[in-house]
UniProtKB/TrEMBL annotation:
This is Cytochrome P450. Coiled coil: none annotated. It comes from Recurvomyces mirabilis. The lineage of its organism: Eukaryota, Fungi, Dikarya, Ascomycota, Pezizomycotina. InterPro entries: Cyt_P450, Cyt_P450_CS, Cyt_P450_E_grp-I, Cyt_P450_sf, Cytochrome_P450_monoxygenase. It holds the Pfam family p450. GO terms for molecular function: heme binding; iron ion binding; monooxygenase activity; oxidoreductase activity, acting on paired donors, with incorporation or reduction of molecular oxygen. It comes from the Eukaryota.
Amino acid sequence: MPILTASRIAATQAVSYAALSLSCLPSFTHPPARQVIISFQLPLNHVFEYFRDRKALRRFPGMTPLAPFTNLPYMYHASRGRRYKAVHEAHQKYGPIVRVGPNSVSFNDVQAVRDIYGHGSAVRKDEFYDVLSGTHRHLADVADRDDHSRKRRVLAGAYSQAGLEHWEHIVADRTRALVQQYDRLCNRPVYQCTPHRDPHLNLEHVKGFINHRAWMGIFAEDAISQIGLSADLHMIEAGNDIVEVTALNGKTSRFSYREALWYSHRIQSPMVWSPKWFKTLAQWTSWHPWWRHNDNYTNMCVYFVQQRLKRYEAGEKLDDFYTYLLEDKYGSANFYPMGELVAECSIMCNAGSDTTGTALTNVLYWLIKNMETLTALRGEVDSVLEPGDSVAAYDRVKHLPYLRACLDESMRLTPPNTMNVPRLTPGEGIEIMGEWIPGHTTVHSPPYAMHRNAVIFPDPLAYRPERWLADNAKDLQPHFLTFSAGARSCIGRNITYLEQTVVWATLVHRYEFELLSAGWELSQREAFTCSPGDMPVKIWRREIPVGGE
Ligand code: HEM
């Protein structure tokens, strides 16, 4: 712990008296004058806390000069969708430990990943999750360890590698529907915008192209609704992700699943980085139309669960995630409250669609930009599939090393989850990277920056799947933070690999692709996850060589 010097104590006391004198303003002060004084008091308190430095965090460089005083710079970058880049740039400039807010420190080092996220670490989920949670906690936002273990045990079978056989046929079926659409669009390409539309794109100019971003979002949403709740939304067949939902008040509405999720992320993601202010800021911005999307998303989850419960009560035997939630392994009802069932639906439809849709989009971008890689991948896929196979059988492609390396390399360069997933140090404090961090401090590691460490990933900006096949490939894993790490890492990673593997083996086997132009770049914008913008792609059927011709 740091030792206070005499000069530091004097400075601390001086600021302390200034702040104290303001907070003890006599009640007879004229109201407007009082407001003016209070508006000065707020920033002064921040300055006071900075010099007081109770937690000795002043030893770490600030992400910006203002960051040690206020969360505003972090929130500002979040509102512009480039928080992850600002953190990366700060680490490049100042080193592996950077203070990103008055009570928030980012650690860009694998030792920190072990200390913060590792099994056995005493940190817990940050207040960030508390303010975002609803009446009931779900698997991702529950802070209590026992409650988390209980939830994770209940769902473990559904998410396990062995459990994948239950979902393979759904993924194959949805991929088949996608192929039917892409076959149709080969002849008559139709460009559809999504919430990720790029304002700089001249839409006239993209005639003859499909929006691959939109289709990957639709695929992921359709697949997870079916895997999770047996909800046959058939969005791929419809060619859009419009859901029709009856809310508890009996009102029926139609809206885009993706829009509901995306705009509710957009409105919440900047303000949540100041958890103490979140509720106030939400109230102040309650007029904003994006909050309506948040309501839509909640209504959608409630509706999905109601529909699923109706089928359960009618005695229908279904095979989906909800079977695990509704009954134990002996078939006895679990009787979870409705709020908990809705909360689990919310995380499943969110984490299970947004991230995978993003990952599926990014892979194609990197493959088209690196044609020799695409050719090598095709060679591998063609070697195990027949020319006439319209959908890749998972059994044939699940162990293809180059395919897996292509997926991992895309998720390294463009991790769908760029967020520094925040954790709170325990009351007694902990040591991170050899530094003592006092209790109740927000700590985290940045995937985007970790994945650009040139020592671990030489030539870090190059898309080079071969690095995942090299002799030292195992050593890269602890630096790969796409799915976070430890006991709270992603439980859905087997599901997303299943989806990505089948979709990409199928698509590279069947189609050729072209971007709008050689220099065209895919935009990325972070809300909670980092979402690619719309992606115009020209597709056409391949002439598949028969018998190794
Ligand atoms: C490329 C795809 C995916 C990525 C990049 C990803 C990433 C992550 C990350 C970084 C976390 C930790 C979040 C935190 O600590 O706040 C997480 C947790 C979680 N993910 Fe995923 N995920 C993906 C796919 C999925 C899928 C397909 C599902 C569901 C079907 C899913 C469900 C979950 C759940 C329930 C948690 C909470 C786990 C816990 O706290 O025990 N994810 N994911």
